[in-house]
Amino acid sequence: QVQLVESGGGLVQAGGSLRLSCTTSGSIFSVSAMDWYRQAPGKQRELVATITTGGSTNYADSVKGRFTISRDSAKYTMYLQMNSLKPEDTAVYYCAARPWSRPTPNSWGQGTQVTVSS
Prior knowledge:
Number of strands: 11
Order of helices and strands: EEEEEEEEEEE
Helix content: under 10%
């Protein structure tokens, strides 16, 4: 497993931007892909974006064109650039790592709160 620490959340007005970071440590070579999830109050956790070790990316329809997932391998850090934020983007955002052995994450960060005011 890897250890994950998110940062960069906060309060922003609708239309604004935030960049989340996820710093990794531990068994980095065991990771096949990394995800950003989010969970709003009273809702299920949802997958927002994914980046594979090969650099392929995928996004939820609700964030396509507004969010960008990226990574800096030299810094062992993954990012989520969030632009044109909407109140419905308000949630706790989690980074997660998937091992090669299964399609779902086995490591999670502690989460960072993103609040978008209208």
